[in-house]
C-alpha cells in the first residue's frame, strides 16, 4: 500500500483526498525532475535519473524511495539493476495537466533553451507522441480522413483502420482493450490536441520500432529522424518541415 493510501485523513480535509501529501512529493525539484524524466515512459535506471537531475547516487536513491513509497513510481528489478517508471498513465495525465498551468522555467542558458525547444519540437507524453510532431501527425490523420473529431475527441474511421493497419497498428485488436481507443489530448506547448489513447500509444511504439522516432535515455524529448520525415511524408503527406520549430530553418540557413 502506498504512503498516500496509508496517510490518515485530517479534520481539515473533510474526509477528502490528502492533496497536500501529493503536493509535497512533487514540490522538491529533484523529485520533480525525476517525474518529468519518467513522463517519457519506459524503464529508466537510477543512474540516468541521477545524472539528469545532477545529484549523487545516494541522494537520488533517497528521493526515488520517497516517490515509490508515495505510489507515484514503480521500481522493477532487471538482473542487478533497478529500473523505474511512472506507476500509471493516470499519473502521467495528472503531470501533463500540471505542466499546462505551471510557470515557465527560468533557465536561460543555451543548453536550457535547447532542451526546452527539443520538448516543444517533440516529446513523449508517457506512451504517446506530443509536441509539434504529435500535433502534426494528428493533423495528418484528420486530413487523410482517418480520424474524425467528435464531441471534442477523436474517432477512427474505417479508412483510418486500414491506413493505420498498413504500418502495423491493429485498430480492431486495440478496440477490444479496456483503455479508450483514442483521446484528443490538449498539447500544452502547441495549445492544440495530439492523439492519445491506445491508438496513440501503439502508433508511437511503431514509429520508434521503425526508427522513425528516437528518444534519448532519461529524457522525454523525442525526435523524428530523417528517415521518419521521409516516411511520414509518404504515409501521411506531411511536409518534412512541419517537424521544425518556427524559425528553425531560417536560423539554420
Please outline the major beta sheet: 3 strands, antiparallel
What fraction of residues sit in β-strands?
A: 15-25%
Mean pLDDT: 86
Strand order of the largest sheet: 1-3-2
Helix content: 40-55%
Radius of gyration from CA coordinates:
19 Å
Verbal overview:
This protein starts with a helix and ends with a helix. It is 49% helix and 16% strand. The strands form five sheets. It has a three-stranded antiparallel beta sheet with strand order 1-3-2. A two-stranded antiparallel ribbon has the order 4-5. A hairpin with a 2-residue loop joins strand 4 (123-125) and strand 5. It has 13 helices and eleven strands. The protein is of the alpha+beta class and 253 residues long.
Sequence-ordered SSE layout with sheet pairings:
Layout (H helix, E strand, L loop, with lengths): L2 H4 L12 H9 L1 H10 L5 E2 H8 L3 H13 L3 E6 L2 E6 L2 H13 L8 H12 L1 E3 L2 E3 H14 L2 E4 L2 E4 L1 H8 L5 H5 L7 E4 L6 E4 H13 L3 E2 L8 E2 L1 H11 L11 H5 L1
Antiparallel strand pairs: 1-3, 2-3, 4-5, 6-7, 8-9, 10-11
Summarize the structure.
This protein has 253 residues and is an alpha+beta fold.
Descriptive terms for the model:
single chain, 253 residues, two-stranded antiparallel sheet, disordered C terminus
